[in-house]
């Protein structure tokens, strides 16, 4: 270790304690969304002891960070966390990488449910996923649905445009089953009608969206729900995301004046 890294290791716990002491928990968001970005780039810069720089190496390192994040959320009184694990666009990747991702995601959701600490809800276009993975996801939801504490949405096969399309389709089908005329359907269609059919129906919209890896874009994450969200972009790749980075995001959020269109 360099002298600089030794100093950082010694000083960061003190800095964390200062951040926590100054953090007003009455101003922390109820719901945060997190875009877990940078796993593949992290792997290229951080080979394993055996020299592995594959995407799987990065995804496994990223998966190992999730329980830490959820623990930090518990400590700061956050009610809902939405984690973007796999986008619908990611499904265009090679079959080899996808099969590895499906396995890692299944293991990750199993590990989250095994803690018995959080309720898990899967959000996304599940018909796009393999049946074996869907079975594991369903089992995790059923096992944890009655658990209190932080509600954890795992966004898998998720795309913001697809979510809105799915919501409109569900709304139209319900109207058709009720025997409504098209003019009546159009008259009743408003934002609250769409809200009821989103994957996150019944949950508060995210007040804060965090994206790691330095990319400053949403990429389609929670398009409908994030219309009044605050955004925090962190330079660290997801596997390197630290508690101090999380606390900085909350500090930044608490310092903002949220007008909410007023």
Blueprint of the fold:
Elements: H1 3-22, E1 31-35, H2 39-45, H3 55-63, H4 66-75, E2 80-87, H5 95-115, E3 119-123, H6 131-144, E4 151-158, H7 160-177, H8 182-188, H9 191-195, E5 208-211, E6 230-233, H10 243-255
Parallel strand pairs: 1-2, 1-5, 2-4, 3-4, 5-6
Helix pairs in contact: 1-10, 2-3, 3-5, 5-6
Question: What can you tell me about this protein's structure?
Answer:
- Helices cover 47% and strands 13% of the residues.
- The longest helix has 21 residues, at 95-115.
- The model has no long low-confidence stretch (mean pLDDT 92).
- It has a six-stranded parallel beta sheet, with helices on both faces.
- Helix 6 links the parallel strand 3 and strand 4 (151-158).
- The protein is α/β, with parallel strands linked by helices.
- It is globular, with a radius of gyration of 20 Å.
- The protein has ten helices and six strands, in the order H-E-H-H-H-E-H-E-H-E-H-H-H-E-E-H.
- The protein has a domain at 27-159 and 205-253: Decaprenyl diphosphate synthase-like (Undecaprenyl pyrophosphate synthetase, 3-Layer(aba) Sandwich).
Short account of what is shown:
Helix 1 (3-22) packs across helix 10 (243-255) and helix 2 (39-45) packs across helix 3 (55-63).
How many E strands?
6
Q: What is the spatial order of strands in the main beta sheet?
A: 3-4-2-1-5-6
Low-confidence stretches: none
**Which structural class matches the secondary elements?**
alpha/beta
- Output the radius of gyration: 20 Å
Tell me the CATH architecture of one domain: 3-Layer(aba) Sandwich
Q: What portion of residues belong to β-strands?
A: 5-15%
User: How confident overall, as mean pLDDT?
Assistant: 92
Along the chain, the helix and strand elements come as HEHHHEHEHEHHHEEH
Number of helices: 10
Largest sheet: 6 strands, parallel
Q: How much helix is in the residues?
A: 40-55%
CATH class of one domain: Alpha Beta
- State the CATH topology of one domain: Undecaprenyl pyrophosphate synthetase
Kindly, what is the distance between the CA atoms of the first and last residues, rounded to a whole number of angstroms?
A: 51 Å
CATH level-four homologous superfamily name of one domain: Decaprenyl diphosphate synthase-like
* Global morphology: globular
């Amino acid at each position: 270790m360099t002298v600089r890294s030794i100093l950082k290791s010694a000083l960061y716990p003190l800095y964390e304690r200062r951040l926590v002491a100054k953090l007003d928990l009455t101003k922390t968001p109820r719901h945060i969304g997190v875009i877990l970005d940078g796993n593949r780039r992290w792997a290229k810069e951080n080979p394993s002891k055996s020299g592995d720089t594959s995407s799987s190496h990065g995804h496994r390192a990223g998966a190992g960070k999730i329980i830490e994040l959820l623990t930090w959320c518990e400590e700061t009184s956050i009610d809902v966390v939405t984690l973007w694990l796999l986008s619908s666009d990611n499904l265009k990747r090679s079959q080899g990488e996808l099969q590895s991702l499906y396995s890692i995601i299944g293991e990750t959701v199993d590990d989250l449910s095994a803690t018995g600490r959080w309720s898990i809800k899967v959000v996304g276009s599940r018909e796009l996923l393999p049946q074996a993975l869907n079975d594991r996801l369903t089992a995790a939801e059923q096992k944890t649905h009655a658990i209190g504490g932080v509600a954890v949405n795992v966004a898998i096969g998720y795309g913001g445009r697809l979510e809105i399309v799915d919501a409109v389709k569900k709304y139209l089908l319900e109207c058709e089953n009720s025997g409504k005329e098209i003019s009546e359907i159009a008259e009743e269609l408003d934002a609250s009608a769409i809200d009821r059919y989103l994957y996150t129906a019944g949950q508060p919209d995210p007040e804060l969206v965090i994206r790691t890896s330095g990319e400053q874009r949403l990429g389609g994450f929670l398009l409908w729900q994030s219309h009044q969200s605050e955004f925090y972009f962190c330079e660290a790749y997801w596997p390197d995301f630290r508690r101090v980075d999380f606390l900085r995001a909350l500090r930044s959020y608490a310092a903002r004046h949220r007008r909410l269109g007023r």
